[in-house]
Structure formats: structure tokens, C-alpha cells
Design goal:
Structural class of chain A: alpha/beta
Oligomer: homodimer
Number of helices of chain A: 11
Order of helices and strands of chain A: EHEHEHEHEHEEHEHHHHH
Strand order of the largest sheet of chain A: 3-2-1-4-5-6-7-8
Chain lengths: 281, 281
């Protein structure tokens, strides 16, 4: 039994949107795969790479698509969801890949008619690299995608989003938008700030002395400043709380070093190693 | 014209010592390669891996070796150098691979007879992995090894150490012990503390939400707590200064977020990206 293919619309065909296209094509259940992007050059590259079959404006793509995924910067997602909702069929699934969920979901739910099927999403996969030229069909394999249905979310929308991400190779977890934002404030947004603060301290004359340790610890700092400014601004309160906690941890190291307290240094390093070893490479 | 092979003694045949053995064997100019380690199982694995030809006690190895490299934890290096110096020939080169240089070089120079050839060294290469089973012949290829001669260092010792590391595939830089320790406080020791402080914040229940960004930023935290306690204790003042500066940088982010100052966030992220892009992958 072969199910009919579903038309997939991807809005924003950068690294994430492009990888969704490649993963959907690999799965074989989706076609045609249509892309929307404000940058025609990006659409060209996405098409050349095989991430999308064709490109069009958002209203035209929304009219055709069974699944519409918004992969634009977080401060533009809600407006794209609402535009797509004006043109799409009643049974189309609307979802997104934004790194913040409270601001996105609240802005969408405030305006969205009840009969539209929207569920917020966030694949915990990515790279400091950008653009469809870095897209990979296996980007989501084995990674977690968080879906953030609310009491307003139709169960069918959430089931279809779960099915969609499973077909793309991802494991799916469910959280409230608030729980999602508090979790990624620690696991993603704080590391970004830490990496940027550390990278900013290096004098280029010292580049030769920055080996793999410095490079790993600061890799996130190569991320796009525009995208990340929007993310941090949308999740500022949870990030501020994590920054406070992080500074408290640093002060423990600082106090122990200041007092030549080797036992405490050893304990702090041992605890951290336990957590990191448990996490795996 | 084939020069006679030189006998190489490696004290501490873990990741660094083992890699020195493999790189020296690859070069072909050294043999036999003799290993010393307090752990007989490590010596066995180093021999099985081809890092060393044979194992013996330090006095016996020192008597035979033309070049003796001490690769033990930083708080044991000086004592191993001084033991080796008591048994080695007058023309043998004594050097080390410790991550700190002021404490090591001062402790050695205080005791070492003038006619011995010692120069401090530190290959800026490594891994959070340990042991000769993770040793690689190419670990030093293209990486910088810092040599830290002092006014007391014989020019011939420093020239021979430079030649030795060049044969192993490394680029060689020269610094005073003090300049070395201040530099690595930023490029290596601060990132270690930062990675450990961040890793320690993760609740294991959140592991599934820690993607490549968190993993990269905290990778150093998997390093050995004993080795790193000794390193941080030996370099505590420079590390404390860098921790202070780092906290100041974090506070800039914190203040900007607290005031919803997107322009400052964007500027800080853009500056950090410039430095990180310049550094390369």
C-alpha cells in the first residue's frame, strides 16, 4: 500500500530548512517540496542542492502544501505562520523550527483562527554553519525534536507533527513552550553566550596558541549574530537566570583558586567530568 | 648521509608521551625509544601500540638516552627532570611537555647543575582522551610547541629542543615561562574552567536536550580532574586574572539582556564571531 505523497512547503531554506527538504526527500513520503525564501540566491542554491523541487511566494506555496514548516529567524516566525494560515487548506499542518517557543506560540495563538492546525517545534540539531549548501539529509537522525502543543492545540496537529519529525529521522519529545524555553536557556542559549564571551577575549596575535580546547569551547561564537540576538532577546528572562547560576558556579572556582583550595577544585572538576562523561561525545 | 639514531627516553607514556613515541618512530631519526611509567599496564599498552620499544626504570633510561622528555603530570615534572639529570650523560637533552612553565622551570633551575641541558616545553596539542591507546603519530603536526628557555638555558639545549619538535611535525615558538603561563591561562586553562562550570549545571535528565553546541562547549570538562587540579594550582594567579576578565565580559551580556539592549548584544556577538572566524575551525 503506497500512500499518496504530501506536498511539503518550507519557508526559509537555510541550513535547517534545507536539511528538512533533504530528509523529507530521503524519506520519500513528500513531494513536491516547495521552498520560500526572501533571498532568491538561497532558493537557487537550495534547488541546485536538491533541498527543494521548486520555489514560489508564501501564499502560493501555502495553497498547495499539506505540511508547512517555518524555518525563518525567530522574530519572523509568527508572522510567517499567520500569513501561511490565511492561504492554506484547513487540514494543512503548520509548524516551525524556532529556538524559542513562548514568544512564537503566544504570538501565533493570539491571532490564529481555531480551525488552523499549528504546533510549535524545535529540532535540537544544527551547526554554526549556515545556508542550504551545508544542509544534510541526516541532520535530524537520532536527535530530539521538541514539540510544544498547548491546551489550544488540536490533537491531530500534534500527532501529525510527531509523525512528520519521526519520518525525518528525529526522536520527538513534548514540552510546554515555557518548559522548552527554560531547558534550552541552559542547554543551548547559555553555551552560546559563554562561547561568545570567551572568544571575544582572544587577541588575534594569540591565535597560534589556541588549540583544540579553545576552539571547541568557542565554536558556537561563529554563529550568526542576527539570528542569535533575536533568540536571546526572545528568551531573555530564562537566559538571565541561567547566566546568574553560571556566574555562581564560576565564583566557586574563583574562590577555591584564590584560597589555593585544591580539594574543592578537584571536587568541582570531578563533578563536571561525571556529567560530561554521562553525556557522551 | 645517514646520521646515527638517537636514543629517546619518554617519562610518562600517556596520550602525549605515547604520541611523542609514535611521531619519533614515524620520523625515523630516533631509536631505541624507551618508556618509563609508574603504571606497568600503561607501559604494556604503549609497547603494544608501538609507542615505545622497551620499558625500564628512569635511572636506566636516563643513562642511555640522548633526548629525555618528561610527560608526567605538572606537579611531578621537576622531580623527574632532576632524577634524570643525576643519571644522564652531560650532552643529553632534558625537556618536558607540562602545561605550566613557571613553576616547573623555577623548580628545575633551582636545583639543576649548570652543565645539564634543560629547556621547558609545551606542545599545544592534546585531547580530553587519555592513555597510549589514544596516542597518534600526527598529534603535533602543524601545532605549536612553545619552548621556554631562560637566561640560564644553554643555547645548544634550546636549539636541540627546537630540532626535536620540528622532527615530530610541530611548529616551534619561544616565550619566557611567564609569558607562556599568562598566554595559556587564557587559551587553555580558562576554557577548561568555563567548560567545567557549564557542564556541572546540566541535570542528567536534560541530556537529550544537550545538542552539539552544549557538547562542544563542555568537551574539555571530560579531562582528568587530577591533572587539571595540578595545572590550575600551578598557574592560579594568571588563571584568576583571566577569570576576572571573563566575568566582566559575561556582565556585559547580562546587563545588555537585562536592559533589552539588542544593539549591544548584536555588537558583542559580532565582535566574538570576528575573532572566532579568524581563528578557523
Amino acid at each position: 500500500v503506497t500512500a499518496a505523497k504530501e506536498c511539503l512547503g518550507i519557508v526559509g531554506v537555510g541550513l535547517i530548512g534545507g536539511s528538512i527538504g533533504l530528509a523529507a526527500r530521503r524519506n520519500g513520503r513528500y513531494g513536491p517540496i516547495l521552498g520560500v525564501d526572501r533571498d532568491p540566491a538561497v532558493l537557487e542554491r537550495a534547488k541546485a542542492r536538491g533541498c527543494i523541487d521548486d520555489a514560489d511566494e508564501l501564499p502560493a506555496v501555502a495553497q498547495h502544501a499539506d505540511v508547512i514548516v517555518i524555518c525563518t529567524p525567530v522574530d519572523q516566525i509568527a508572522s510567517h505562520v499567520l500569513t501561511a494560515a490565511r492561504y492554506c487548506r484547513p487540514t494543512a499542518l503548520l509548524t516551525d523550527t524556532g529556538s524559542t517557543k513562548v514568544a512564537v506560540v503566544e504570538a501565533v495563538e493570539k491571532e490564529l483562527a481555531d480551525e488552523r492546525w499549528f504546533v510549535g517545534g524545535h529540532p535540537l540539531a544544527g551547526s554554526e554553519k549556515r545556508g542550504p549548501e551545508n544542509a544534510r539529509a541526516d541532520l535530524f537522525d537520532g536527535r530530539v525534536t521538541v514539540l510544544t502543543p498547548t491546551p489550544n492545540t488540536e490533537r491531530r496537529a500534534s500527532d501529525r507533527a510527531e509523525y512528520f519529525w519521526t519520518l525525518l529521522g528525529s526522536r520527538v519529545g513534548f514540552m510546554s513552550p515555557d518548559e522548552h524555553d527554560r531547558t534550552v536557556a541552559l542547554t543551548s542559549h547559555l553555551p552560546h553566550v559563554v562561547a561568545a564571551a570567551l572568544a571575544g577575549m582572544l587577541d588575534p596575535a594569540q591565535n597560534g596558541f589556541a588549540a583544540s580546547g579553545f576552539r571547541d569551547t568557542t565554536r558556537l561564537a561563529a554563529g550568526d549574530p542576527e539570528l542569535w540576538t533575536a533568540i536571546l532577546m526572545q528568551n531573555r528572562r530564562p537566559v538571565l537566570r541561567q547566566l546568574d547560576k553560571f556566574q555562581f558556579r564560576l565564583k566557586e572556582f574563583l574562590a577555591a583558586l584564590d584560597q589555593s583550595d585544591a580539594a574543592t577544585i578537584r571536587r568541582l572538576l570531578t563533578e563536571a567530568k561525571g556529567v560530561r562523561d554521562d553525556l557522551g561525545s
